[in-house]
Write a structure and sequence with these properties.
This protein has 414 residues and is of the alpha/beta class. It has two domains: 111 residues, no CATH class; 271 residues, 4-Layer Sandwich (Purple Acid Phosphatase, chain A, domain 2), CATH 3.60.21. The chain has ten helices and 16 strands. The strands form three sheets. It has an eight-stranded mixed beta sheet with strand order 3-7-8-9-10-12-11-13, with no helix packed on it. Helix 6 links the parallel strand 5 and strand 6. Helix 6 packs parallel to helix 8. It is globular. It starts with a helix and ends with a strand. 47% of the residues are buried.
């Protein structure tokens, strides 16, 4: 079977699911309209239009427009699904669009997990259903003692579950298991929309650390109002005490896991990281240590490492200083940034989602490493390796490795 025929077959298998999804979305949309103020309704229509126009622009020009902020690709099919206006249909199947890699490494195509995969619309559906209905925010965070010699295994954006024909997430989880980590930490994103069923199925194979495991909140969990996320905490991550932020501590290190999604702007689909007051108050009261590591879903720098995001300064202010290390996900890449000031920043958002070489980072002076190794995946010929970050803390020292799904050491700090 040719690659195109394979994906046409896969597309046929999800047609019924997509039909049901569209019906549910229309019903949820009608319900939401009855609850919205006129200005809110117009703002959402504008968002859907921007998502559609952005996709059309990229299809025509090959890249995102440089004169306005990007919007989440989950919005792309919204106008046509909800039958608003006379939107020109976007490609919906692999035979209508050959996959290509954008400069940020995203795969533009219609196959599973690619930017125009119709099933991303489930995130839009859940966003509509839960725009006014969020889970209760937990405020009893765990502060866990760790040994002076401790190993952490960190993966971001891992929650895809097994693919139909292969399983990068499983390969990454197997490699994490081999690390024999004391603590494993998921930086957030369970796909497509962090619903209860997706959290239950897609996190079932998460490799548990010998002393504990943690998982962070994210934009995708928030699409379902974080209801599925908090239920998952109770089921699989009891050491987290039902709270979406936590700390690991010893005499030398303070490792702080943050919820950067709960207070994020819903009208921007929770794409930008934000801290709420309970976390800020808690962070200010944490015991001070010589070294600080921050873990979050959202990033502190833009993808190139050139500009700080709106999350950066509030984190530094709450901690009383810049952290020494900061690991984030959200961007589907494995990236190691050059030290800026005293901060060593890392992106470990390459846990499972297929992505390609991030050409905009080629030769960039602030990038020490970004993943470019061909994954040799016949179903995703443009995909590079997925992986995770392995961190060992020994006293004040830190030893970092980015490990590929094949077990290879892709980057090391030593």
């Amino acid at each position: 079977m040719s690659l195109v025929s394979h994906w046409e077959h896969e597309y046929d298998k999800v047609k019924l699911r997509i039909h049901g999804l569209f019906t549910r979305m229309e019903m949820a949309w009608m319900k939401l309209i009855s609850e919205l103020e006129p200005q809110e309704f117009q703002a959402i229509i504008k968002l859907l239009q921007r998502g559609h126009d952005q996709a059309q622009y990229v299809l025509k020009n090959g890249e995102l427009p440089g004169d306005e902020p990007a919007v989440p690709w989950e919005l792309s099919h919204g106008l046509s699904i909800l039958r608003i206006g006379n939107a020109t249909p976007l490609p919906q199947s692999p035979d209508q669009l050959a996959t290509r890699v954008l400069q940020d490494g995203s795969l533009l195509g219609c196959r599973k997990w690619e930017l125009l995969d119709l099933l991303w619309s489930e995130a839009l559906l859940k966003w509509i259903e839960n725009l006014r209905h969020h889970a209760t925010f937990g405020t009893d965070p765990a502060v866990v003692q760790m040994e002076r010699d401790v190993t952490l295994a960190i993966a971001g954006d891992w929650g895809t579950g097994p693919f139909d024909s292969h399983a990068p997430a499983v390969s990454v989880a197997n490699q994490m298991q081999l690390a024999q980590a004391d603590f494993t930490i998921h930086l957030g994103d369970v796909y497509y929309a962090g619903s209860h069923s997706q959290e239950d199925v897609d996190m079932a194979g998460w490799p548990m650390g010998s002393h504990g495991s943690f998982t962070l909140n994210s934009n995708h969990e928030m699409y379902s109002g974080a209801h599925g996320y908090f239920k998952e905490l109770a089921k699989r991550f009891p050491g987290q005490q039902g709270t979406s932020y936590f700390a690991l501590i010893n005499d030398d290190w303070l490792v702080v896991g943050l919820d950067s999604a709960y207070a994020s702007d819903a009208m921007n689909l929770y794409m930008d990281g934000t801290l709420n007051e309970p976390q800020i108050t808690w962070m200010k009261a944490l015991p001070k240590r010589k070294k600080i590591m921050v873990l979050s879903h959202h990033q502190g720098f833009d993808i190139s490492g050139h500009h700080q995001t709106a999350l950066y300064q509030p984190v530094c202010d709450a901690l009383g200083r810049e952290p020494d290390y900061w690991y984030w996900g959200h961007l589907h890449n494995g990236i190691v940034y050059a030290t800026q000031g005293g901060l060593h920043a890392r992106c470990a958002g390459h846990g499972a989602i297929p992505y390609g070489t991030t050409s905009e980072l080629n030769g960039h002076p602030r990038i020490l490493f970004s993943e470019t190794q061909d994954a040799k995946d016949p179903d995703y010929p443009l995909r590079v390796l997925n992986g995770y970050a392995k961190i060992r803390l020994v006293g004040e020292e830190i030893f970092e490795e980015f490990i590929g799904e094949d077990g290879s050491v892709r980057w090391s700090s030593t």
